[in-house]
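Hi U.,

Before I forget, here's the chain from the pilot set. I'm dumping it here mostly so it's searchable later in email.
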Amino acid sequence: MTVKSVSTENQFLDTDFPLWKRSIDLIVSCLGLLLLAPFLVVVAVAIKLDSSGPVFFRQERIGFRLQKFFIYKFRTMIADAPQRGKPLTASGDARITRIGKVLRKSKIDEIPQLINVLRGEMTLVGPRPEVPQYVNLFRQDYEEILRIRPGITDLASLKYRNESDLLRLAADPEKEYIARVLPDKIALAKEYVRRSSLLFDISLMLKTVAKTLVG
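Structure:
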């Protein structure tokens, strides 16, 4: 069974999205994009100078209630990377650009996801959205998880911050991801769904910022 796209008017306005959570999302994402605007322009120029292609990378992901949407990131790979390999990327992938290595290591490539937060497709803290082919393998689990919106950071994001380095050690990165990493991520996502609260979200955001600064 495959994931189907659902188009519903006001699809992101519902009682399952607490007002406190949406309020924080709007405040943080708006301030973040405004304050970081000069820095983001510098990053965009660096990407254009480093390799040909667009500044941003859009990839289809599965979000709230199994609806498809496009996630935004700074492009860290060659322009035709999707046609040259699988959606999973391990460290050392030849498709990664020079500036892309820096952006991925520092997580700066994730900042454009604040656009998805503004649009209501994502939230600051919530289960990370996956690509359709991996969601289809664990559809029942994702039906449970995606009763809430996916987020920029969560428990799995913290545990697997260096996921690409871990996958690089595997003989078959995709097999390792499907057999071991993804099931653990799903378990952590379910834990987040059970524990979700204002204080827990703040705790995860602070831990994410700390890990980003420490490197």
